[in-house]
């Protein structure tokens, strides 16, 4: 393969040096000997032309050495309704241009006295009609001599004479230039190898042709599709198209091209592995219109069913030239059927990424609605410099000149192109005369003209080298005389060429400029010139293919600003042009910043949400930011959290508990005020302790609601526990005292210990002191402070809290819970004590309510974890409610008596008096006279107990005025 590539470089260079050496200016008329030209006509059925002019099958130009040529002068006939015709319309660029390029090169070589000095090259050029079978049939002419068909003994002329062979015309060919379509080339190559005839193609790029075992005598001046596929993959990568579809024709070109693309799509490039995935791959035989339409419809439907970005919006196209026209035709039909014309161009539209099979000179791609299907296509073209000499030569072709007349196909082209007739044509009446027609306007030579000329030169150089090796004696010094003298003599080695030797020793060795790159492509973008209505401008002078980049030796350059999707309506001033974004051809849209890609296969992914506190170091990973940091809006890094919150006074969360606390404090003060002057009963110390604890509880609300500081945190930790322990310790001491008195009384008249007010205060202080003590130790062990809590509300917000978690604080209340439980137990135990001592009953009520409330609050507290304000608020309310319960249950009956039943608040001598009186009435002697409340209560309790036990037997005595005595020691 390497040697073949190098031919390109070498010959390109040679052409220039040869031109210079011979001082042959471009466009100069090359002298042509018309006696050496023969056109061979064929049966009409092989051609589709309706013209009654007999079509031409091949052309011959005599010479000392004959070169073969196979070119697609006609396209393949697909209009079956014309019968069994094989050849379709004449193909100007791919066919006639290449034929003329070969002629042009031969003329130049024949006029170059340095090359094959004295020997003239002739040609036998066949029309392949773009059909492999037809081309094979035609190619038999190249080998007719070799297979003995030149034996004329069996032939007779019309006049009865025996035909004589035109010996000079019946030479077998030295080498063949062609074919163009790989499918044709493969067939021709298979034939030529049998006869050891070297073949050199100026256009066939199929990979298989590089296989020297299969194609021993084949060489080419174009690179293999291996490189083209790599160039296409580079383009896809450049536009970030990772999910493309593939459409290719069922022939040597399409099959091999698609295979090369599939391989290249998986390749690493410069060490980076960026695979292009092929979403859907369709192999079509464009002669089967229904199947082709189905395949294209499926590709289009796939796009319709997906989002705007479109899956596989880009379709890589590896199709032979003739098929492309059909594919565009069918695509435009499908687009029309799907109502695509109304949709903004970027949507649901195939963007073709087409191989060099796409003929940019083919006007048929632009007719009718086909241009809409082709619009925006990216087309590869083998990089080749234009050859001004050939352009001039081609433009100067005019009927009547030898260069025109030697190529019979030019006449056909003229007839088709200018809709005219030559004077010797059978039906010329009413038509214009072709003789007057010459080329006008701009001219674009076919892309492979350079490669065709290269191929002819390669053969000429090889022949020259062989000539020098095999016939050295005939090499005469190149002087003015020798140059202008007739040829010296034939070289036998050249008249009967040893194909094997010629191919291996000479053709493959035509090379220099080693080190040059393997292949280069020009990248074109099809940008039809549109009018204001969005229709194609019929008389446009603008070239529809814009060069947007190139691929040189593996290096891609794209001028993005020239791409069609950037400039939709090129008639409008630049500022008003609608800018369309570059279409994406990906499996999925890019994920949002807060999402990561979960790769499902090499090119496809699902978008998965990252947690709100995670950032994305890359597209596929989410990582937690450290505490106190939150991801930046683009999620690329973490940033410190600035949002610091704490309870604010002006929210309902603070206002409601504050109001409750204030009301509670006012109520408590009211109780104290009402209570103090009239309190007569003993036990008031504990009552004051209780009232103090209640006030303290209310005050805790303000501590809890205040902005956390080391001081408020310290107070909170000690204060709440202290307030509650005081409250419940006092109640516990009260209930416990009564229970003990009661229990003792049932057993003996001995007074239980520690029932004096002082000892009760002492007991309460001891119980409270315990709590206070461990709270102090706790403060010492963990000094109070504040901290930012990032988890409480959500990590985006820092909550200013105390440095101990709230549940720790709840643990500190366990002691209070124990007190509450004990208190409740004793309240339950003493619930049956006589009504005048029913303070325990109220304490009981207070305890039950407290228990229920705290259980409810704890579940509420943990259920509202995410709302720290609600938590604090509920804690404040619960504390206030506990105080309320105590205040209401214990003190409201007393206040009621004081306010509304003042007469009941009379200090009777005391309960002892009652008891004595009752005892007296009941003949129960009890002379003990207690001066303090305690003994009197104690004794009256005993008396009551006894009274109860005897009540049933002396029923009528049990109607005393116990009403007032019940309240005797009420306060
Ligand atoms: N490279 C094409 C093939 O191998 C032929 C292109 C052309 O004829 O320009 O079939």
From TrEMBL:
GO biological process: G protein-coupled glutamate receptor signaling pathway; regulation of synaptic transmission, glutamatergic
One cellular component (GO) term of this entry: plasma membrane
Biased composition (Polar residues): 926-942, 951-971
Primary location group: membrane
Transmembrane segments: 654-679, 686-706, 718-739, 760-781, 809-830, 842-862, 868-899
Domain of life: Eukaryota
Coiled-coil ranges from the UniProt annotation: none
Keyword Lyase set for record: no
Compartments where located: Cell membrane
One function term, GO molecular function aspect: group II metabotropic glutamate receptor activity
UniProtKB keywords: Cell membrane, G-protein coupled receptor, Glycoprotein, Membrane, Receptor, Signal, Transducer, Transmembrane, Transmembrane helix
Name of the featured protein: Mgl-1
Organism this protein belongs to: Pristionchus pacificus (Parasitic nematode worm)
Lineage: Eukaryota, Metazoa, Ecdysozoa, Nematoda, Chromadorea
